[in-house]
Request: fold
Amino acid sequence: MESRRDRLRAATMREISDTARRILVEQGPEAVTLRAIAREMGMTAPALYRYFDSHGELLRHLVGDLFTELTEELHKDIAAVPDGDLSGKFLAASRGFRRWSLDHRREYALLFGAPLPGLGHKERADFAEECARRFGRTFLGLFLELWQKRKFPVAADEEIDPGLREQLRRYRNEALGVDLPLGVIQLFLQCWVRLQGSVSLEVFGHLDFALDDPEPIFELMLFEIGETLGLTHAPPS
Reply:
């Protein structure tokens, strides 16, 4: 059973993370410092080191929390679709990803923008990385379920560029640990690049030069991915 001390520590860590997020949203990532968080909470900056060893660890914890929130939102969207409707689940997850990203632009920038200092230390990034992997498995799981139920056309191994082929093999064997044709891995990454790239362009305002409302372009992209995977596109309700 969790002790009262553990509960108080967890509550304080949650308050620190929530405060860091509020500063991120209101002032931007550069303002998320230990001193600023301590000032907001009425603490001293050294007192925060009882909960996080460094500024980088605090940011990694915030990244993990944000990935967890995003993943839970996507799971709710997927769960609202009938079990047998894979097309609907793909659309729900993709639209949910776009919705959360547009509603939380600065949080999105922290997760998918330029890496921040302190986030690259692999030996201390376990929490953030595991939360990120769980997010990634949301889309990968749908993709693999579709492949198992009705196999869509993919490139044969020998048709893939040799340089790319080796990278795909390493990603499949070391990161995914699945027994799948390399063409399936390649197509998954192609779809993800289109989905996440489309959302990033919109979140960061890089479509403003041409479009006031990029949603129709986003839906066209979903339609084209659906055609590739044999999915049925239905307009958003």
Residues 120-125 have pLDDT under 50 and may be disordered. The two ends are 46 Å apart (CA to CA).
